[in-house]
What we know:
Blueprint: E1 2-6, E2 10-17, E3 20-21, E4 27-30, H1 37-47, E5 55-60, E6 64-65, E7 68-70, E8 77-79, H2 80-87, E9 91-96, H3 97-104, E10 113-117, E11 128-133, E12 137-145, E13 148-150, H4 166-179, H5 190-201, H6 209-217, H7 221-245, E14 251-254, H8 256-261, H9 265-268, H10 270-275, E15 289-292, H11 297-309
Parallel strand pairs: 1-5, 5-9, 11-14, 14-15
Antiparallel strand pairs: 1-2, 2-3, 2-4, 6-7, 7-8, 10-15, 11-12, 12-13
Helix pairs in contact: 1-2, 3-11, 4-5, 5-7, 6-7
Amino acid sequence: MVVADVGGTNTRVALASGGEVRTDTIRRFRIADYTALGPILSAFLREAGDPRCDGACVAMAGPVMDGVGRLTNVGWSMTRDDLAACTGAPIVSILNDLQAQGHAMDHVAGDKLQALVTGAEPQPHDAKLVVGCGTGFNAVPVFRTDTGRYVPPCESGHVTLPVLSDDDVSLARYVTSAHGFPGVEDVLSGRGFERTYAWASGTDAARPSADIMAALAAEDPVAIKAAHAFVQALGRVTGDLALTHLPFGGIYLIGGMARALTPYFPRFGFAEAFRAKGRFSDFMTRFAIWGVEDDYAALTGCAHHLKGLMMPGMDSARL
C-alpha cells in the first residue's frame, strides 16, 4: 500500500503493510516544489523502486465529496481515477485529513496521548471524537460497530461560534467581518488566534501566532486576554460537539494550535468551559479528553482504512 498525508505546506508519503506504516519509508515533499499531487506520488514510488501497490489512500486538508478531494490552501484536486492512474492500485480512497486521523485513533500508542480531562472508562463500541484545531478547525466522530469503523466527513469549523458573555459577543461581532458571520474557525485556528489577539488589543494590531505565543509566555496582558478567550471558546465548542456525538470512547485533540495552548488549559479554564452545560454539567464528566502527539497519525489512519477496504468480503470498488 501507499499512503499520503497532504497538507497545505508539506506532503508525507509512505509505504504500509497490513495496516502498519513502514516508518523507514516516510518521505516529506514540499508542496511549493510541485504543481499537483500526482507527480509527488509518482516521484515517491519511483524512488521506492516502483513497488506493486495493492491499495492507495490519501488524506487531504480540505473537503472530499464524491471521491474528489480538494486541497483548500493550494487549490489542488485529486479524483479516485487520478489516484489509481498514478499508483496503479486497484483499491483507492481519498479522505479528508481529519477522517484519516479518526481511523487512526484506535491505533495511537499510549505514549503519544496526553490526558487532559478525566472521564468514565470506555466500552468497546463507544464512539470517539477527533477535534482538529490548527491551520483550520474541524471535528469528526468515529463510530465503532460490529461491521467496522465509520468516520463520516464533517465541516464542523463552519458552524456558528457559541457565545455566553459580553466579551464573547464582542469577539463574535469582531470576527464576523471575515466571512459575514462568526464561524468557529474564525476564532479557533491559527489565523483565528491572530484575529482574537487583534480584538483583545482594541487596536486591530496584526501579529503572527508564534509572536503571540511568545508574548503569552512573557505574561503580556493582551496575549493573556486572547489566549483566555481562545481556550474558553475551544472548551465550549468541544463540549457542544460532545453532546452532539456522545463520544464516550474519548475526545482527541489534534493540531498545532491545540497543542500550543494545551499547557494553558488549566489556567484558562478549558475543562470548566467544556463542562459548563447547565443541568447537563454532571453528564459532561463522562467524557475524557486526550491530546494527541503523533505526527504520523493520518498516515496510520489511511493504512488502517485501506486494510479494512481490502478485507475478504469487502466490495473491491474504489471508495
